[in-house]
Write a structure and sequence with these properties.
This protein is an all-beta fold. 0% of the residues lie in helices and 55% in strands. It starts with a strand and ends with a strand.
Length: 114
Amino acid sequence: VQLQASGGGLVQPGGSLRLSCAASGSIFTINVMGWYRQAPGKQRELVARESSGGTTNYGKSVEGRFTISRDNAKNTVYLQMNSLKPEDTAVYYCKADHLGSYYWGQGTQVTVSS
């Protein structure tokens, strides 16, 4: 399984961005797809994840501001990020849990700054 993430960039505080991550290499629906992030000097943390059945989990710091969604037919996951804060600045990684293994995408930089 290969993951290709896109959509990062520079945005002002209060702004929005949408990340996308497309999985390829499997004919089956990916079980769990999600987003993690890692800021400099910090551990990687969960942002949001969604199962193929629609169950979602969010990190505490993004609840109410970020929304994860999926297109199972395309094995693609999206992350709509609203009301962005400077502390959301990090490299965002897409992750897929599939058939007992997990895979990471290459990461996309999100910078929130005025």
